[in-house]
Amino acid sequence: MARKGFFAELNRQAKIAARERAKRERERDRASRAAEKDRQKLLRDIERARRDQQRALKAFERASATEQKRLAKEAKEAHLFEMEMEAERRNLDLAETYAEIDGLLAATLSVDDYVDLNALRCSAQHPPFDRPDLEEPIQAPAPIPDPEEPRYDPPVRPSGIKGLLARKRHAREVQQAQAEHAQRMVEWRAACASAEDARVAAVADREAAECQRLTDLSKERERYRKECEAREAAAAERDQALDDLITNLSYGSVDAVQEYVSIVLGNSVYPPQFEVSTDFSFSPETAELHMRVGIPGPDTIPTEKSFKYSKSADEIVATTLPQKAQRDRYTSAVHQVALRSLHEVFEADRQGIIKAISLEVGAKTINPATGNKAFILFVAVAAERGPFLELDLARVVPAATLEHLGAALSKDPFGLIAADGRGVRRS
């Protein structure tokens, strides 16, 4: 019965997004209630108690014997307070979990389950060009100056009688200085030539790098252009598939009806602790949708009534809900899922293509009679569109409504007792 279609992945992503939206909405709703203020205060108290306990323990290590007794008492009080606050936090979380399970039907009644397929259209979203580094020209090379020209400083000729006597020596010194200067000039000219070569090489390297940059930039822009074209083509293909779906749905095409139902059910977000799975198929001859909804077994539902800190055991202990309360909650959840599944499909089908739904609700779990994993049927019901839409689900008792619809109901879903679905149209 399970089916796949073009929008299967879209449906999966929509479900994830819807779950996140629902989570944010719940958080915003909690933030507006006094209970959330209590929760935040509780978390702050827990953190403060932990800090107080740590400070007390550090002070205890440094304290005298008398002070240690006082600090030990303070550390114990901080620990007791922390544990009590932690127990209260768990109680708040547990209450929220139970509220979500108890409100499975109510959660969908405030939501219009109709899906406007045109709203699924979207234009291609292009990321920014991912090689902006190639758009910046290569900078000009740093200047390479010529070395400073050597300066010729002739030897100073002595004056007076000493100058006359040292004339030959001075001439030799001048000759030597001129030779040394000439050598320095040769070296300087060579250094200037080398600097010029370096300047030419730097310019050439820059021009080569710039040429390579422009080549790489051209290639990367071409790649980016092709990727954008691919995204545009994918968006156009998806829109065309959406047009086909809308057209085929108006004709009651089997694939289109099943595709639409998959999107509707994909948008149905259940609490994380009560996930459901749905298989279905559409019969055009009878305009009937056959559905099988799998729910968690009773062993997956919390059984705690409350949490309390035990001083004697120095641990948080849980009290267990009476089995009747566990049974009543699970049975109620089963009945709510059945009505919710019927409601979501009928409400979403504004064209009235689906005239009836035959529904099975059960759990894939261990059959206590065989020890093997099996689908244990809890609800089997067939509902006609017109009569069902006349129901005011906000005011009904789910079990009574299912009996009104002629459903076969398990006498004890919590005990994994299967319903007798004989005589009811089965999915």
Provide the low-confidence segments as ranges.
none
- SS content category: alpha+beta
> Can you tell me the overall shape?
elongated
Distance between the termini: 9 Å
Task: Give the number of helices.
Answer: 10
Tell me the Rg in angstroms.
42 Å
Provide the helix percentage. Answer: 55-70%
N-to-C SSE string, H for helix and E for strand: HHHHHHHEEEEHEEHHE
Sheet with the most strands? 5 strands, mixed
Domain count: 2
DSSP strand tally: 7
Mean pLDDT rating? 86
Query: Reading side by side through the largest sheet, how are the strands ordered?
Result: 1-2-5-6-7
How much of the sequence is in beta strands?
Answer: 5-15%
Your description of this structure?
By secondary structure, this protein is an alpha+beta fold. It has 2 domains: 8-115 and 254-415, no CATH class; 132-242. The chain is 56% helix and 12% strand. The strands form 2 sheets. The protein has a 5-stranded mixed sheet with strand order 1-2-5-6-7. A two-stranded antiparallel sheet has the order 3-4. The radius of gyration is 42 Å and the shape is elongated. The model has no long low-confidence stretch (mean pLDDT 86).
